[in-house]
Amino acid sequence: MSETNYGVIADRLAWEVPLNPSATVELAPFQVFTTGAPEESEHALRVRPLARSSALSLYVRAFGDGGGEDGLHAHPDDAIWLVLQGHASFFGEGRRPLGELGPHEGILVPALATYRFRCRGETLIARFAAGQA
Known about the structure:
Elements: E1 5-8, E2 24-25, E3 31-32, E4 47-52, E5 56-63, E6 68-74, E7 79-91, E8 97-101, E9 106-109, E10 115-130
Parallel strand pairs: 1-6
Antiparallel strand pairs: 2-3, 4-5, 5-10, 6-10, 7-8, 7-9, 7-10
C-alpha cells in the first residue's frame, strides 16, 4: 500500500454538513446531543456533526472494515480522536505506528502533525477539534 500525502486539510468537512437534528440548543451556547452512528442517508461520508461553536466542534464518523483516512494529512489545529466502538490504528509519516485504539481509547493529534488511520471492523469514531471542523 502506498502512502499519499494530502498536506494540510482545512477543517471544514463536518461544518458543511447540517447539524444532527437531535441536537438541541437549550440556552446559548449550550447544546445537548447523542453520539449515535450517522444514518446511511445523512451524508455520503457517514459523518454526523454533534455540536459546534466558533471555537470547538465535535462530530462522529462511521467506517466499515478497512475504512479510515488513508492519505497522510494534517490539520491546522489540535484534535482528539476517540473510538466509541470498533478499532482504529493511527500512523505517522513512514508508517510509524502512533496508536492502536479500541473502544473508549483516544489520541490527541497536535496541530500540523501528519497522520492517517485505518479501522478494523465496523468502527464509530468521534473527533473533537478546535474551530469549526
